[in-house]
Each structure stands twice: as C-alpha cells, then as structure tokens.
Amino acid sequence: MTALQRRIQRVEEQLGSKREAGLRLVITAAARCLALDSATCVEILEECGYLRESDSVSVARLIDIPDGLDAKGTERFLRERGADICSPRRYE
Q1: 65/63 Cα distance (integer angstroms)
Q2: Interatomic CA distance for residues 38 and 60, integer angstroms
Q3: What pLDDT, in 10s, does the model give residues 39-56?
Q4: Position 89 pLDDT exceeds 60
Q5: Rg of the chain in Å (alpha carbons)
Q6: CB 53 within 8 A of CB 81
C-alpha cells in the first residue's frame, strides 16, 4: 500500500465514507493531441486488463504514448505496452 493510498483510506475512515470504486488518475498533456481521445485509450487499457475497477488508486500515464502514432499505432502501443503505462513508477 502506497503512502497516497494510506492517506486516502485515512480520510475515508474519518469521514465514514466508503467508495465502491477507486480513484483513477489519467495523466495527459494539454498541448498534445493523440490520435485517440483519452476515454478511448482508457477503454482499451481496461479491455486488456491493465486498468481494473478496484478500491485503490490506478494511474494511466497517457503522456508516455510516443508522438506521431496514428489511431491503429496508438491502439497497438496501448495493447502491447499498457503494463508500462499503468504500472506505478518509483521516483527516487
């Protein structure tokens, strides 16, 4: 359990609220246009099992998709490399 997850759990316990679904964070770049919109990218990642409904925090870093890919290339990248985009990173 990460520090962020513990903090969220503590706040939920203090407020007496339980969420049915977890928190999903989708990171995109405002100045960048992908061939697929972010909702479609998230659907593909869910379909492939990289993003799941859970009571924890899930992250999809769409900023890691390379520039210049068309729609098919973007979909292929998400299906093949989705684990890299959705796995938590450790910053040291």
Answers
A1: 5
A2: 10
A3: 999 999 999 988 877 667
A4: no
A5: 15
A6: no
DSSP letter for each residue of 27-89? E--TT---SS-HHHHHHHHHHTTSS---SSEEEEEGGGSPTT--HHHHHHHHHHHHHHHHSPP
Instruction: Return the closest-CA partner of residue 88 out of 65, 44, 56.
Output: 56
Model pTM score: 0.69
Q: What type of residue is 32?
A: R
* Residues in Cβ contact with 19 at an 8 Å cutoff, skipping those fewer than 6 apart: 12, 55
Give the integer Cα–Cα distance in Å for 33 and 42.
Answer: 15
Distance CA 37, CA 14 (A): 37
Residues composing the chain = 92
